[in-house]
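Sequence only, no structure available. Ideas?
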Amino acid sequence: MSATVPPRTRSVFWTAFALMAMLTTLWSLASPIFSVPDENAHATKAIAQVRGDLTGHAVEGVKHSVVDLPEEYSYSQQIVCYLFHSEMTADCGFELGDEGGNDSFNTWVSAYNPIYYYLVGWPTLLLDGSAGIYVMRIVSGLLCSVFVAWSFQTAMSVRRSRWLPFGLAFLAAPMVVYLFGAVNPNGIEIAAAGALWISLLRLLQHFDGRDTGTVSSLSRRYLWLIVTVASIVLATARATGPLWLVVVVVLCFTATGWRAVKKLFTTGSSYVGLAFVAAGGLFSMFWTLRGGSLSGQAEASDAPQVGASFVRGFAYVISLTPDYFQQAIGFFGWLDTPLSGPTYWPFVAALALLVTLAFTGLDRRSVMTMGVVVAAAVLVPALVQGYSVKQTGIIWQGRYGLFLYVGVSLVAAWLLSERAGRSLAFLSIRLTWIGLSLMAAYGLGAFFLVLRRYVVGTDESFSTMWENPSWEPPLGAMTLVALYGFVSLAFLLWSGWLAARSARADDEAEAEAEAEAEAEAEAEAVTATGASALPEPETVRA
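Reply:
I predicted one. Tokens follow.
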């Protein structure tokens, strides 16, 4: 790292990276091959792409482009025989690369932007079969962990950050980490968006500079580096990336206000970073428009509401918003592994606690900012689907909105940490520990229940997992559960310590500022008293 990175924030980066890398790796190992949504399509594209087959080829009678696979990665649909059958385990008797598989795959993501697939596909040049998929997952998780580590580093580089460890914990929510540890660009999209939310807010505060308590200890150049990389990755992760980039940037501009935005655009050095971001966004749009990764006209059987009007599509998505939110919390697999209702309660309680505090304990401007961000999380999916519903039908899933849902928690924690949240500062440590504990409990519970579904199926008792498992992931199911619990506890304790350290530093700085203000007031009073006690000068006679 650059010499402009203070040692304290450097340790935050590496600790966050290590903890997140362990959590993502554990999810990578716990999920059966191709049990993550669309993973077979993304993985086969990566396998073919790193071997020179960039977008596949058309085959008569096949709807999607076909990519060729090497013999060691031959594919059979029998690999995922358990999909949509929750009573079945992941022991289907066919492995990737087994004899009898197909040497091609008609992937519906063949025209997607190639950057992500180059980043994660290279391990398949060194390894065969399932081992290559597991390593691709781990690499994807490590890349996502870098962005989460940047999020922690930039968040904690400011004195006023007492609530941010609570908000950042949602970047370690089980559905988020599950996607991090899979071959799917949805994961890196969420990770990059999380880093962009926080780093851009910190960069704008750097340009504002009126409040020393909100000026990052990281240099402006380093913040620009994070903003630039996160923006390019978000813009190129999927076809909608440039739009998501604009949404996040506009919401951050709204949160910080015109003064900081104006200063950013009137500073000459800013245009280096802006140029790179613009180039990444333009490349993504060019690839999407030229490569044809926008969906073609769907048939009525492909999705609901194909051919519907904008208003109908918009209203349809608004009515399903609670379902999308539930999917984003705990619908694992191909939406075929939902957790039971009571399982969500710790997560919902933690999020409700943070958001309620932001809406009830802040000033009017901060509440309006929260309202705009929450409204965007609800309206953006509806607007996007309303626009495309005639062509695509309703294809939205809750996981697509995670970059916005995570933004709600991050902005809430950021606002509460600012001066506007000073009246609630005395609650920060206690409520942060409560929120982190709820999140850790939900994370471990979700990990165990999802693993149980694949190890023994949902019809068997819990004890069958360790007494007579039908399928075992690498290292064993119960070993992974124990490790996940240990890492989750370490993440909880470290995040709580960060929050407590920040709160103490903020309280001490506020106390010093108050003491200095009182001392100055007393000095001015003494000066005024002394001046009033001086004798009146004698009148000079003519």
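The mean pLDDT is 92.
Hope that gets you unstuck.
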